[in-house]
Amino acid sequence: MVIVNPTKCLIEDIAESKEKTAGGIYIPASVKAPTMQGKIVVKGDGTKEIEIKYKVGDIVLFHPNAGTKLMWKDKEYRLVDVAEVFLGGDKSDIFLGGV
Predict the structure, then answer these.
(1) In angstroms, how far is CA 48 from the centroid of its own chain?
(2) Which pLDDT tens digit goes with each residue over 54-70?
(3) The whole model's pTM is what?
(4) Is 86 helix (H, G, I), strand (E, B) or coil?
(5) d(CA 29, CA 10)
(6) Helix, strand or coil, per DSSP, at residue 94
(7) 8-44 tens-digit pLDDT
(8) Is 3 inside any structural domain?
(9) What is the DSSP string of 3-17?
(10) How far, in Å, CA of 86 to CA of 59, rounded?
(11) 36 and 99 Cβ atoms separated by less than 8 Å
(12) Could you tell me if residue 23 is inside a domain?
């Protein structure tokens, strides 16, 4: 069981490791724009003053420099304060492009 600070979310970055251009050139993730989208894996319970309305599994958008980056079992995660999350919702929500 993973427990996080009451106002934090552990977010798994959603990013393609490689992207192919129209000309057939692969662009590695190391030179692409930083990830701004992820899936909540663990979330805090919130506090009396701060309610976390997102749930585990929700897709969220955040600032590229938000939170602390972590690597675990070859996956990249971020520990992000809920105040740094711009918006989020279920995978099927249209505003997230149906990720």
Answers:
(1) 24
(2) 899 999 988 888 999 99
(3) 0.71
(4) strand
(5) 21
(6) helix
(7) 999 998 764 456 677 777 766 666 666 688 899 999 8
(8) no
(9) ---TTEEEEEE---S
(10) 11
(11) no
(12) no
